[in-house]
Predict the structure of glutathione transferase.
Amino acid sequence: MATLKIYADRNSQPSRAVILFCKLNGIEFEEVKIELFKREHRSPEYAEITPMRQVPAIAHGEFKLFESHAILIYLACAFPTVAGHWYPTDLFKRAKIHSVLDWHHTNLRRGSVGYLLNAKLAPVFGLPLNPQAAAEGEKVLIASLSKIESFWLHEDGKFLLGNDQPSIADLSLLSEVMQLELLDENERSRILGPFKKVHRWIEDVKNATQPHFDDVHAVLFKTIATAKKQQVDTARS
Amino acid sequence: MATLKIYADRNSQPSRAVILFCKLNGIEFEEVKIELFKREHRSPEYAEITPMRQVPAIAHGEFKLFESHAILIYLACAFPTVAGHWYPTDLFKRAKIHSVLDWHHTNLRRGSVGYLLNAKLAPVFGLPLNPQAAAEGEKVLIASLSKIESFWLHEDGKFLLGNDQPSIADLSLLSEVMQLELLDENERSRILGPFKKVHRWIEDVKNATQPHFDDVHAVLFKTIATAKKQQVDTARS
């Protein structure tokens, strides 16, 4: 069996989705850390893995692939041990999963990244904060959460599309929503507060993916704790 | 056989990709025009088809679907007459097609829409032009074209990913690039000029998809001709 290498930074939401998927399905892999904060994704060596210089990427033997949704689908098909609910073979169910994943790119992800980067994270990457872009990102983020609440989550079935068991779409979208933990408590409440079904879905996906969920998110929680400590120290000094 | 309805505006690039795919594969469909310039996508009736109120969407019997990539994949799988090169069953080839389609969302499409909307089309939708957003869009657009030139097109094989025959990715990305015809000749040359392989690829996909290509793009060319006439009339008055 060819070795599976996953090039990832667990601070990145699509990296976490791919690693979590592998752990949930007993897929063995070697994790190659590409630390975004150290700009390791810009190295010439990493450009050999993916010319897009983003995480995650995989190398499965000689086969290289990037884009997390494409990777999740590939892994679900390449490993026969993966349970059917992650990426059903049924034509209609599969089409709906593609639809929510495509929607994610230009809605939830665009809003979440646009808001977080421009309201919070830009200085980490040597960029200025951009209040106008942050406001635009927040608008898209809230509209996206509202669509998850009113459309992608149904009354019957705990998971996206009204499914009884989680799919790769739940992993991808939840990893994105978890990134909002980087916000202050008040800010996060303001944004996520109104969406009761989204809250319940977050808990349901967490519960369905433990103990791997906590394990895969530990790096993000450590980053958050460090950032909060720095804020307190700065406020004191 | 269930009726296939395609809700589309041929001025929209993903609408054209879906219609072109059906015509190329002899898939019968009823086209339901949703005119964006008349804001027909905002009507309550259309919200029943897709709550996202974007084009294209399909209804195949009772089954409704939106997001053009998801639609292309669904149609390629639902109609057994579709030739294998459009969406190969091979695990690795299919994964690469997913990768280029996912990449498209946050690169070529983001750049193209960001530039065209903010530099040119905003007034049509009652919005102001936004030079800063246009500049950002142009940067993403040019970086994306550069990646098509240097990575997605290979020396061997005329089409994306070095394929000898076109795939759904060629239809989706070419429909996007055709939208740049809305620019003035000089502007279009400035943006597309440096990319020789992209130029050859445009011609190769056009040739491989005629006479349907011209047929499906006729509405866009008419829109462009009308806009140019209006510009000349405005300059004269």
User: Anything to note?
Assistant: Chain A touches chain B through 30 residues (CB under 8 Å).
